[in-house]
Inverse folding.
């Protein structure tokens, strides 16, 4: 299980060159062993079947507070960690079950489907404004999802743009929790919370037809969200609602421009959008990994794992496992049976998956149809992170 070679590969994934091409490193890791131990002690799985097992096995979950204290001492006094570790993303049943039920009742499929005409309008409006050379992230990949989730939650339009930097700074803690990172992430998380506290207070006084008001009113079996839970939920929904989808759109454009035959397929047949989006999610997912802890002694990848061990599933690697996807490094928008691991699985399965899919299914065909000469206009600037994979800038020319 331990291997010097695996250690080098994992270390490369923390560096710029490794992040430029994680997929060849994942392949080598998978070939060395399906389960390798990272230098920080966590066990890493890279096979599709093992990633699925990590997300679905009820004997795996998130760290209870006493373990968190051991890994991230004093976490409750750091806004960035407090927001993360008390959110549904990282809590366990029964609290997770209760909060998930409460938020699901406000975030319904009907509410998402009803957004279709509005998303189409926003896409057309953003495309109308793009001429010459533009930064695709700034001109489209960020404004579309931030305005969609902003409208859904009820965040006033002029306030939305400031959250791009704030959320990027907060989510640095998904990568590493060093004191240097916390110096940036804590004030960002505190600002987000303060803003949402003000907005929630307004909605309590005067409810509107938006999700913050729905969350204020949400009640199941006599249970309501506490003020603290509500703010954490709103912050997570807002952040997850645009950060990941921004990266999906930018990663997809890069993948399509590097595979012009596939771009042409989508341009010729917009009906390909649903399968194209699944394939693009598989090919270069914005969320590359997720973490769990074993609550019990289990067997994973055929190896005994003791209770208390930390486990990281590399979803990006599982998405390229040849045992599951033939010729996995080939982008094939017509691929059948291409359900990606990108939204996770089990009880934490992404709550926003239908929304992310809908946005990409509307945006990508519209983009490639509007601009027949869409091309790179410079080198993309990669976000310095592996957990969340994407670009900070993506210069493209549209005419
Ligand atoms: C391409 C876009 C997206 C990707 C790749 C993605 C990926 C993921 C993944 C992998 C998880 C599970 C994490 C884990 O099990 O540890 C997750 C959970 C979650 N996602 Fe997404 N997401 C996307 C878009 C969205 C959007 C648009 C929203 C909200 C509007 C959202 C809200 C959430 C929430 C609330 C959870 C936590 C669910 C729970 O723990 O029960 N996501 N997402």
């Amino acid at each position: 299980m331990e291997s010097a070679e695996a250690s080098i590969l994992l270390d490369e994934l923390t560096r710029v060159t490794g992040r430029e091409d994680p997929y060849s490193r994942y392949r080598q890791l998978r070939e060395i062993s399906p389960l390798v131990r990272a230098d920080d002690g966590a066990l890493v799985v890279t096979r599709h079947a093992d990633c699925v097992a990590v997300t679905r096995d009820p004997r795996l979950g998130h760290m209870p507070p006493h373990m968190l204290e051991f890994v991230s001492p004093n976490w409750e006094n750091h806004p960035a960690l407090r927001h993360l570790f008390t959110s549904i993303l990282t809590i366990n049943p029964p609290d997770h079950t209760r909060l998930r039920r409460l938020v699901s009742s406000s975030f319904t499929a009907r509410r998402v489907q009803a957004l279709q005409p509005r998303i189409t309008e926003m896409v057309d409006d953003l495309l109308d404004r793009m001429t010459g050379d533009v930064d695709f992230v700034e001109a489209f990949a960020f404004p579309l999802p931030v305005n969609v989730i902003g409208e859904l939650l009820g965040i006033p339009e002029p306030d939305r743009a400031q959250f791009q930097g704030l959320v990027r700074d907060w989510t640095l803690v998904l990568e590493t929790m060093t004191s240097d990172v916390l110096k940036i992430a804590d004030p960002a998380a505190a600002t987000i919370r303060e803003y949402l506290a003000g907005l929630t207070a307004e909605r309590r006084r005067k409810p509107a037809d938006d999700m913050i008001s729905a969350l204020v009113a949400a009640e199941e079996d006599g249970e309501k969200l506490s003020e603290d839970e509500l703010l954490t939920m709103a912050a997570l929904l807002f952040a997850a609602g645009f950060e990941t989808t921004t990266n999906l759109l930018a990663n997809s454009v890069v993948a399509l421009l590097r595979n012009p035959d596939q771009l042409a397929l989508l341009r010729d047949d917009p009906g390909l959008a649903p399968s194209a989006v699944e394939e693009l999610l598989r090919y270069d997912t914005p969320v590359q990994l997720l973490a769990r802890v074993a609550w019990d002694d289990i067997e994973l990848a055929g190896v005994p794992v003791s209770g208390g061990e930390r486990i990281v599933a590399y979803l990006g690697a599982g998405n390229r496992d040849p045992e599951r996807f033939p010729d996995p490094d080939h982008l094939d928008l017509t691929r059948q049976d291409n359900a990606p691991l990108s939204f996770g699985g089990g009880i934490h399965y992404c709550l926003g998956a239908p929304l992310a899919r809908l946005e990409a299914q509307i945006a990508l065909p519209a983009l490639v149809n509007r601009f027949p000469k869409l091309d790179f206009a410079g080198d993309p600037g990669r976000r310095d992170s592996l957990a969340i994979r994407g670009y900070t800038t993506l210069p493209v020319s549209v005419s």
Observations:
- The pocket of protoporphyrin IX containing FE is lined by residues 55, 88-89, 100, 149, 236-237, 240-241, 244-245, 248, 285-287, 290, 342-344, 348, 350-352, 355-356 (CB under 6 Å).
